[in-house]
What we know:
Layout: E1 14-19, H1 21-26, E2 27-37, H2 41-48, E3 52-53, E4 58-62, E5 65-69, E6 72-73, E7 90-93, H3 96-106, E8 111-121, E9 124-134, H4 137-161
Antiparallel strand pairs: 1-8, 2-7, 2-9, 3-6, 4-5, 5-7, 8-9
InterPro entries: SmpB, SsrA-bd_prot, SsrA-bd_prot_CS
Subcellular location: Cytoplasm
Keywords: Cytoplasm, RNA-binding
Amino acid sequence: MNKKGGAARPADGVRMIAQNKKARFAFEVEDRFEAGLALSGSEVKSLRAGNVSLSDAYAQPKGADLVLVNCRIGEYQPAAFFGHPPLRERKLLLHRAEIEKIRGKVEQRGYTLVPLALYFKDGWAKVELALAKGRTHEDRRDAIAERETKREMDRAMSRKRR
């Protein structure tokens, strides 16, 4: 928190808006991409107010582009008359080579494109996308057990250092 009560800004010009914590648990992340978003003015205002949810969002190829689906950006109340629909598909801005690479992977069986985070970088809205495979129930249990084991080892090491 800064002196005015708002969120602290990192030195590199990145201000986090929302994170998709469930995606890191439910999917095995293989590759990450940073993409811009094509937004309307009221959507940007709503993002700055933090009125966004990534919980059910995913990206998919549509025509020659990639679109973000089910990303809920709530209405900006002062612009309610000329507002935007909260669940519309939003175009992702990537280089053509990146789009083709992602398209090739997504068309393979088992891969999906999930958003991990939404943030402002130097004033531009960006989304961090992950090319991921879904985890099975057993994989999730293994991940939890591995995380708990690592946590116990770290605790033991910190006790020993004291």
